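Input structure tokens:
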């Protein structure tokens, strides 16, 4: 195995998904976060996700879940990343947060370690400038849920080397995934387009043109998308969507990226999507499937005033 020891920074939804995928691939993972409680919840979530995946995937059912979990070392000590051969950073989508992390990683990680940023909007070139290894910093935009997604948007920074891009391809193949490589620009390809679609879908709901269920149904039933934009937003996390739009607006100074007021009100009220139990759809209802069923009519149809408090 080329990359046997991998560092993962951030144990939120994306970080624990990355850690799970790496552990399933046989890697020893050092998972770092600032709070032990976050790490404990991440471990429980990975265990739950493995049990759920085993119901549908014979390959997951055939392996020892305890062995997979044993490959994930959880710690609040960044120094434990010193032996990592490849590192994936999954911290909050905030420049203020990330700019404190990269100088620390640059100091701790071995010289040949590639630093991969799992970011949805922040410039890879800008992140690389925080280090003394600009040629060995690359973007890896994983999609949620990470274990189920085969393809990854890989972003080559302005000073990124071809050798680093090739190492990223090999690393992802080791995880059973494939890279789609693009050039660096805030939002890259996926979120520069997707966040506009989500924001406009939210504006349609706020204008009372259609309910969230019908907005998404048009995309699923008429356009053959697997998920509608609002269910996708709930899956990503509405707080993450808002931060991504803010980064895009700051980066391009273009009003088309200004977040819809309804999105801001929902985030402020704690309705962040699946992870909080409610967003545009109610995920507390037993048997909820995919964002098109069991919607909370009070929240979805006439809930604007309620969302705003």
């Amino acid at each position: 195995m080329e990359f046997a020891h991998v560092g993962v920074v951030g144990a939120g939804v994306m970080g624990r998904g990355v850690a799970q995928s790496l552990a399933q691939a046989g890697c020893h993972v050092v998972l770092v976060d600032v709070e032990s409680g976050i790490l404990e919840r991440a471990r429980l979530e990975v265990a739950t996700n493995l049990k759920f995946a085993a119901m549908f995937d014979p390959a997951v059912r055939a392996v020892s879940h305890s062995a997979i979990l044993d490959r994930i070392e959880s710690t609040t000590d960044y120094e434990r990343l010193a032996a990592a051969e490849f590192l994936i950073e999954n911290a909050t989508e905030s420049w203020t947060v990330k700019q404190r992390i990269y100088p620390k990683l640059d100091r701790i990680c071995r010289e040949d370690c590639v630093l991969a940023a799992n970011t949805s909007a922040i410039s890879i070139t800008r992140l690389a400038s925080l280090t003394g290894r600009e040629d060995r910093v690359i973007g890896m935009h994983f999609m949620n849920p990470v274990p189920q997604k085969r393809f990854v948007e890989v972003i080559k920074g302005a000073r990124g080397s071809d050798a680093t891009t090739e190492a990223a391809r090999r690393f992802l193949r080791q995880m059973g995934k494939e890279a789609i490589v693009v050039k660096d620009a805030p939002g890259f390809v996926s979120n520069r387009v997707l966040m506009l679609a989500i924001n406009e879908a939210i504006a349609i709901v706020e204008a009372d043109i259609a309910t969230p269920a019908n907005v998404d149904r048009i995309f699923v039933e008429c356009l053959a998308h697997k998920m509608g934009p609002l269910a996708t937003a709930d899956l990503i996390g509405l707080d993450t969507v808002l931060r991504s739009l803010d980064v895009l607006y700051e980066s391009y100074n273009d009003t088309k990226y200004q977040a819809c007021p309804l999105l801001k009100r929902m985030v402020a009220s704690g309705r962040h999507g699946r992870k909080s139990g409610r967003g545009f759809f109610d995920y507390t209802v037993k048997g909820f499937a995919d964002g098109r069923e069991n919607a909370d009519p009070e929240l979805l149809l006439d809930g604007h005033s309620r969302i705003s408090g």
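The CA atoms of residues 15 and 90 lie 5 Å apart. Residues 191-307 form a domain with the N-(1-d-carboxylethyl)-l-norvaline Dehydrogenase; domain 2 fold (CATH 1.10.1040.50).
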